[in-house]
Amino acid sequence: MNLQTNIEKVMSDVKSLFFVGIGGISMSSLAFCCLARGYRVGGSDRAYSSMTERIEKAGMPVSHIHDGKNIEGYDALVYTGAVSMENPEMAAAAQKGIPMIYRADLLAYLMSFYKHRVGVAGMHGKSTCTSMLAHMFIHADKKPTVLSGAETKEMGGAYIVGEKN
After folding, report:
1. Which three-class secondary structure string do you get for the chain?
2. Residue ranges for the chain with pLDDT beneath 50
3. What is the spatial distance between Cα 154 and Cα 106, in angstroms, rounded to a whole number?
4. Which of 20, 37, 85, 129 is deepest in the core (most CB within 10 A)?
5. 0.85 surpassed by pTM
6. Calpha distance 148→160 (Å, rounded)
């Protein structure tokens, strides 16, 4: 079974997602996109920030303590490479058999619903290039869905949810 088939199978049963490190730029954008797609979303982040405040105001609960109890009631856990298996939420998910989805795999899954996709990769300048592309698509009235590594005034954050095509 390849990764794409596996994530499609996992996500077919998922109605709620828990994000470890939800306050990060990439994770928060994914969380907001998942909320827009109808998932129940929550997460944890050690730091209080304007981003975690924005997340909470959108109706996504945020715990500022990593605890295995935080994942109760969630169907899957989303993590980044910065999170180790020693994280209490990751360990609890593994123990309970709750699917753990790597952030990039969830992004690929979400983007699979769009006919036209553009990915920006590299060492330096990804957020800048992504912002310029977003600007062009927005002003061409293409209604893009964009997840960027930086916030822009035009998107009102680091993401924008457009129309599926």
Report:
1. CCHHHHHHHHHHCCCEEEEECCCCHHHHHHHHHHHHCCCEEEEECCCCCHHHHHHHHCCCCEECCCCHHHHCCCCEEEECCCCCCCCHHHHHHHHHCCCEEEHHHHHHHHHCCCCCCCCCCCCCCHHHHHHHHHHHHHHCCCCCCEEEEEEECCCCEEEECCCCC
2. 1-3
3. 25
4. 20
5. yes
6. 9
Place of tokens 């699917």: 99
- The pLDDT value recorded for residue 161 is 85
The pLDDT assigned to 89 comes to 97
- Interacting residues of 125 by C-beta distance below 8 A, sequence separation 6+: none
Cα separation, 132 vs 46, in Å, equals 32
- Residue whose pair of structure tokens reads 């490479």 in the numeric block: 81
Domain extents in the chain = 3-111, 115-165
User: What was the pLDDT predicted at 18?
Assistant: 98
CB atoms near residue 156 (< 10 Å): 9
The CATH classification of domain 3-111, taken from the options 3.30.70.360, 3.40.47.10, 3.40.50.720, 3.30.930.10 = 3.40.50.720
Note the pLDDT of residue 165: 60
